[in-house]
Amino acid sequence: MIWTREIEHKNKYPNANVISLGIGDTTEPLPDVVALSMANYARKLSTPKGYRGYGAEQGCKALRKAIAETVYKDIGIKDSEVFVSDGAQGDICRLQLLFGSNMSVAVQDPTFPAYVDSSVIIGQTGDVNRESGSYQKIEYMACGPHNSFFPDLSKTGRTDIIFFCSPNNPTGHAASFEQLEQLVQFAQENGSIIVYDSAYAVYIKDGRPRSIYEVPGARKVAIEVSSFSKIAGFTGVRLGWTVVPEELLYSNGFPVIKDYNRVVCTCFNGASRISQAGGLACLSSEGFKAVLSLVDYYKENAEILLETFKSVGLRAYGGENAPYLWVHFPGSNSWDVFNEILEKTHIITVPGSGFGPAGKEFIRVTAFGHRENILEASKRLRSFLS
């Protein structure tokens, strides 16, 4: 629907400089060390000596090892527990295939839509409430300013699966160690599996956990999905991973990792060898410094936008440990706010209602963008909102 509205707006104002702060897509070029690594690997594929066909469905061992040793340094994740993929969203769907239609599900509200939509597709939900957009049989865990964006677990019903994203998309909130400790304990007490999405973890700058496995006991209750998309600008290159610890067991004692391995080997022929070469370059000493400089660039964009909204008296959340800002327009309808901002400033945002019932008074703004566009958007927003 946003795409349709954008096309309509551009047709109406063909000469307008439309700036997108909507979809969370990276904009800056890949670091040379990463791009050259993929280019060189692709060139080798044209030679008899360098050509390779199918690889291991779980990913090349060198990359699995690099992820375990770089991303999960000192946490104790084994390379055999890392499954390389074509991105976190694909892994979420493969996990749903693993879980099946009889599982009950809890999600944060607001939440990344893929958790809900994949639950609908696999058959875990009931009918949709047309007014609120919520589905029957899904436990919506309210996460807003009133509870520091962390659900009241004492009022949360027991489910088989808990989808949890930190830093959160769309709110930008990064859970504290104490909050994640509560979540792990809750899962232990209820026999639940946490699917922890850490795609934006590299944006955390204040010492909060970047992985659920920093919390004792998490290896027995949690699966973690992550991605190179926002770490290294791989939104179009497509590369991610999922960690399934050996200690994670079904109630009958069977290891979940064995079933997930079977799903991966059945439904996936492995990530592109070229993408994996880029992933290895990202995790090299030189490459990691380069991709972190990209992250810093987007963090600076977020600071500019955060200050913009604060300067006009609006409450904006996130933007400190995540590339997203969650901006509150009390008493409003998020689609009305979206339409008014687009009409008056030629800036695309995302209506909060698209992330769940709790988002109806919010819009999401992304810090992914060229600096000149971020500065121009800031200027337009200040003028319009003040």
TrEMBL record:
Domain of life where this protein originates: Eukaryota
All residue ranges annotated as the Aminotransferase class I/classII large domain in the record: 17-380
Cofactor(s) listed: pyridoxal 5'-phosphate
InterPro entries linked to this entry: Aminotransferase_I/II_large, DapL/ALD1, PyrdxlP-dep_Trfase, PyrdxlP-dep_Trfase_major, PyrdxlP-dep_Trfase_small
Keyword line: Aminotransferase, Pyridoxal phosphate, Transferase
Entry keyword annotation includes Ribosomal protein: no
Signal peptide range: none
Protein name, per record: Aminotransferase class I/classII large domain-containing protein
Organism annotation: Rehmannia glutinosa
